[in-house]
Amino acid sequence: MRHDSSVLQCVEAFKSIPEQSIAALDAVRGNGGIVAGVYCIYAPSELIRATGAVPVGLCGKKQAPIEAAERELPAAFCPLVKSSYGYAVTDTCPFFGLSDVLVAETTCDGKKKMYELMARLKPLHVMQLPHTQGGEEPRRYWEASLHALEEFLVANGAYPADEESLAREIALHNRMRAKLAAVLRLGADPRSPLGGLDLLAVQESKGFLVDIEGYVELLARLEAALESWLAGPDGAPHPGPRLLLTGVPVGKGSEKAVRIAEELGARVVFMENCSGVKALDIPVDEAMSPYEALAARYLAIPCSCMSPNPGRRKSLAELGRAFRVDGVVDLTWLGCHTYNAESRQVQRWVEEDLGLPLLHLETDYSDADAEQLRTRIEAYLELIR
After folding, report:
1. pTM of the prediction?
2. Count of domains observed in the chain
3. Both ends of the chain: CA-CA distance in Å?
4. 257 to 21, 90, 229: CA distances (angstroms)
5. In the prediction, which pLDDT does 234 show?
6. How many whole angstroms separate alpha carbon 203 and alpha carbon 180?
7. Are 278 and 272 in contact (CB under 8 A)?
């Protein structure tokens, strides 16, 4: 797929964010600040930053450290949990090394047991997430967990968040998510020069930010470059099937399904998962009390750990229609029971709401099944063509 030079330069800048953030995080600590390592989008970045701490996403998307993790964790655990723990115990994730504290969450049983072991390595706080979204009681429970997180951060060197700092961070994060969503919409245009792996680099980089304002400026540059490309004469529609990827998060090192699909001529135009667009369209209500608004926003994230999880059906239907996808791929990691259990419902939703067949893939981080995946994806693409 061809890129005009300004679009390509912007994408390369996003790819460099994780590496560049290492020096920036080191500077934060050198100036007396603290770094909070996080594993999940339920960790409220606005609140963490309002205490003066800087959140950073931690490694957990590659096969290499899994062998070390399996000395303590069952082999049947999902690769995300094993990779995360393997990176921690081998001290091979620079962001883990730079983290003063860890912010965890009760999204799945595997993570909870991993966090028990990981608490031996660094100060760690587990946010107690309710597993249902409706009604006042779950929201109040989650709001109490936000206050507990703040107390933990303050006890470890941060300072209490005030309403002014919370309001500032909420407004900034709302602006960032809206701009990222706008860029991804342009990136999904049939004439866009960007493929799924390009969009993944843009999306994944948001987990490594020290300077959010700089990230928003970079998004604006990419937005302008894409608008210029789409308005020019070279924006011919991509001929391959348009796919929506849903399910577990993917990233650099665990992107084989995206890579194989695009090698076979498809185009992954949207990723409805934690590392993609999930919850980008859920702003924090700036008119509400900050803690209540943060609790409401984060509790509305449509994750498979929620029971029931109606927001996922709504998200899939809206994205599938808006971006005229030809097919939906539901990706599940081996050992990820919540997403695997939800796959049958997702198949029914996609068939009923979009009138499309669904391809469910269950795999891990290794390349052992790469050819099997290639065969299944190729057959699916022939079906939807």
Report:
1. 0.95
2. 1
3. 19
4. 27, 27, 28
5. 72
6. 8
7. yes
